[in-house]
């Protein structure tokens, strides 16, 4: 099974990256393909979950080992397949997802793509103890106890901003756009949706 791939980004699409590894192009579905935009001219490492089923072999990729681990934990939950797990990581900041599970914050979890109340309850039951067992100063350390997940901050903006900077936009341009944009996006809006809205404003000048 493939655990990671290292190569050059040959193509970026809304849902996936094509990674050139010694002349072979691997299509890798990612939560946020744009995070690899700045690395087009240099080799990158993408951590892989290799999914094999009867009708397809699919690669799901992540920027960090922690995201890869969280993805693998999510697909252990009944009712969450790889596509839904990818949507969860795309729709919410991974650390915030872990914190919501630890805090049993169902209201946050049901806002994630493809997650209903029953699935959110299963996520808490199945994963709360498992995430605690992993330990370490990482993504799996939730926001400190007693501190709620911020509801008025857009969780997708930091990643969207990173992708936009990779496309060549300056901090000043992005700060100006965010002042206009922040009241028109929800706290759990997906990264690609935030990027599209920001790009529309940037193109308009």
UniProtKB/TrEMBL annotation:
The answer to whether UniProt assigns keyword S-adenosyl-L-methionine to this entry is no
Q: Does the keyword 4Fe-4S apply?
A: no
Domain III: annotated segments: 152-205
Principal localization?
cytoplasm
- Which gene is this protein's source? ruvA
Provenance organism: Paenibacillus anaericanus
Task: Please provide the record's free-text comment about the domains of this protein.
Answer: Has three domains with a flexible linker between the domains II and III and assumes an 'L' shape. Domain III is highly mobile and contacts RuvB.
User: What GO annotations for molecular function exist for this entry?
Assistant: ATP binding; four-way junction DNA binding; four-way junction helicase activity; hydrolase activity
Pfam families named in the record: HHH_5 (PF14520), RuvA_C (PF07499), RuvA_N (PF01330)
Assigned protein family: Belongs to the RuvA family.
> What does the record give as the function of this protein?
The RuvA-RuvB-RuvC complex processes Holliday junction (HJ) DNA during genetic recombination and DNA repair, while the RuvA-RuvB complex plays an important role in the rescue of blocked DNA replication forks via replication fork reversal (RFR). RuvA specifically binds to HJ cruciform DNA, conferring on it an open structure. The RuvB hexamer acts as an ATP-dependent pump, pulling dsDNA into and through the RuvAB complex. HJ branch migration allows RuvC to scan DNA until it finds its consensus sequence, where it cleaves and resolves the cruciform DNA.
Q: Cite the Helix-hairpin-helix DNA-binding motif class domain residue spans from the record.
A: 72-91, 107-126
Annotated GO biological processes are:
DNA recombination; DNA repair
Family annotation (NCBIfam families): ruvA
Domain of life according to the entry: Bacteria
Q: Which GO terms describe its cellular component?
A: cytoplasm; Holliday junction helicase complex; Holliday junction resolvase complex
Q: Quaternary arrangement and interactors, per the entry?
A: Homotetramer. Forms an RuvA(8)-RuvB(12)-Holliday junction (HJ) complex. HJ DNA is sandwiched between 2 RuvA tetramers; dsDNA enters through RuvA and exits via RuvB. An RuvB hexamer assembles on each DNA strand where it exits the tetramer. Each RuvB hexamer is contacted by two RuvA subunits (via domain III) on 2 adjacent RuvB subunits; this complex drives branch migration. In the full resolvosome a probable DNA-RuvA(4)-RuvB(12)-RuvC(2) complex forms which resolves the HJ.
- What's the protein called, per UniProt? Holliday junction branch migration complex subunit RuvA
Q: Where in the cell is it found?
A: Cytoplasm
The record's HAMAP family line, in alphabetical order, gives:
DNA_HJ_migration_RuvA
Keywords assigned by UniProt, alphabetized: Cytoplasm, DNA damage, DNA recombination, DNA repair, DNA-binding, Hydrolase
